[in-house]
Design a protein that fits this description.
The structure is a single chain. By secondary structure, the protein is mainly alpha-helical. Helix content is 64%, strand content 0%. It has two helices and no strands. The N and C termini lie far apart (67 Å).
Length: 76
Amino acid sequence: MKKHTLVSALCSTALLVVISAAVALAQPGTGGPGPDPVPPVDPNAVPIDGGASLLLASGVALGLKKLRDRRKAQAR
């Protein structure tokens, strides 16, 4: 009974992979709109977004926690 279940599960999975691969390789029916023109970018520009500020804030918070823990350990 287990062998039958395993074979049917493998066949189902293989069929699903084949169907999804056929859909993934399908081409669109129309040409669609063209790409948007890309504005010129300054090569020296560095993008600083919310991620960098979050990393900085978390580093400051970790440093303050370490200082507080060190002061507690020295007070004992």
